[in-house]
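Note to self: keep these together.
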Amino acid sequence: SCTMAQLRDMSRTLQDLITSENRARISVCPPPSTLRLQEQEQVLNLSIKEATAKVVMSQRLGSSLRRKVSETETQLLALHEAKLAAISGNDFSSAKELKAEMKAVYLERDRLEALAKRLHSLSSGSSQELAGMKEQRQQLRQELEQREAQHESRLKENAVKYVELLEGRLHSCGCSGLERIWEADLEVCHLFLRGLQLRTPSCSEADIEDLPSAHVGLPIPPCTKEEEDCAMLTALGGRWCPEANLQNSEFTKKL
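Structure:
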């Protein structure tokens, strides 16, 4: 049995441990401000992935357009030589047909060059936007790492102080049952501190490499002129349909 004095001592000891500020502050969950920064980082990482995909797609489309412009130049040269040969052979009917065909190829070349120019403009804007988002992510990551380090430091400090309080009260309570409970609590605290010491920095999505440049050179399946325009505008955030007027499209408005 315990005397009244021992019961009062145990009551005070229990009260000290239960109301300990250091014990109450041992929380693995980060503070709300850190959680908000983590959410912002996740949203920003998703935006960076989308912007990176847009830049890569614009590079692929730009390469495709340049190749097609080169092909039209080659075709024009061949048509011009064929027209000269027809004229020198007095085959004016064929020369007239070749001239009409050259006119159509010139129009196609001009269309492709105009698209390439607008694509380059949008691609430059997307690249600048992507660079800005990456810089913002870097600043956010630095602030987040700083807050996480501060939180971990406070966790260690509070855990150590609570361990000291437990060790100071452990053998003075005079109750074997409470001693076993506090010994278990003390062991948990030691394991928690050991876990903090062994903890390695978490790898965020910011550490993941962007889409490899090798993807830029992936083969592009053949498609119609309208499908190419549609893909180009969609990839860069615009909207296109076959009956739309390019001058009034969302693609043009972005310029």
